[in-house]
Amino acid sequence: MSSSTNARPAAARAPFDHRMAVFGSDDAFVAAALPFLAEGLAADEPPPVAIAAPARLAALRDTLGADAKEIGFIDHTDWYTGTAANAVAQGAGYLAAHAGPGGRIHLLMEPDWAGRAGRSARESTEWIRYESLANLLFAPFGTTALCAYDTRTAGPAVVDAARRAHPGTGVYEQPSVLVRELDVVPLPPPPLSAARLPGPEAVCAWSAGLGLPAADSELFTSAVVEAATAHGPVIEILAWGEAPACLVELRLCRAVDDPLAGFVPPPSGEPAPGQGLWFTRQVCAYVDVRDGVPGDGARIRVQYA
Hints:
This protein has helices at residues 26-42, 54-64, 76-79, 84-98, 121-137, 156-163, 175-182, 203-209, 214-231, 277-283, and strands at 17-23, 49-52, 72-75, 105-109, 143-150, 195-196, 234-242, 245-252, 286-291, 298-303. By secondary structure, the chain is of the alpha/beta class. It has 2 domains: 10-182, 3-Layer(aba) Sandwich (Rossmann fold); 195-303, Histidine kinase-like ATPase, C-terminal domain (Heat Shock Protein 90), CATH 3.30.565.10. The strands form 2 sheets. The chain has a 5-stranded parallel sheet with strand order 1-5-4-2-3, sandwiched between helices. A 5-stranded antiparallel sheet has the order 6-7-8-10-9, covered by helices on one side. The model is unreliable at 1-13 (pLDDT under 50).
């Protein structure tokens, strides 16, 4: 999950192994988790890690007893602290610090569907996008991930969509297909009252005028400037909303052809200016990229909070 891990030559790496487990009780979770963790312990790599809800971690510890000391345990509310793009950064940083050569480690991962990921259909869609793009993002690395889906919190629609993002489920779709399908849903049109800004730097004064604190206005402006610099020239800039949910849409001359734009971690672990759409995705609550009809440019819509 990170280009900064101490990777072996490409030919020596195992492929990213992206699995899925569906459960409806804590007992079923434990039954799925135990053989996966045992597999990780038997592998020539650092000890496996379970990232899950506290109740599930407690059930695992109770079942493992003294063997629990061989496993890493992380409350998923400490791991999934923001957007799906933030989760990419979290994973990249963790692998850089803890994984074996080539990113080798077993990670049991339960998204926080009772938190941000499940609070709206839009949030859930963003996490399915993340699950799908993970197959491209982490393809070069020897990480083995088991994504755990609790039907009590994720719900059947999310579970069905997640199956399409995981190889080996029988309904897997290539990321290019699934992500394109997610993007078919049109964005709401900007209001007629949307302001037309002369350039991305004008976002600072505009958002401050809406009541966004000065530090947030500057950070939001940097995020918009990064997107415009990476994917411009910009034809038009529209802005609307109310603080802190300020929205800016960049209308571009050209398409954004890379589905991973803004998701690939840079060599430095912390977001900083000069990282393009990666910086934008780390800073903002929502970043939507929509390409127009063939021959037209793209739209990048950014919402600060």
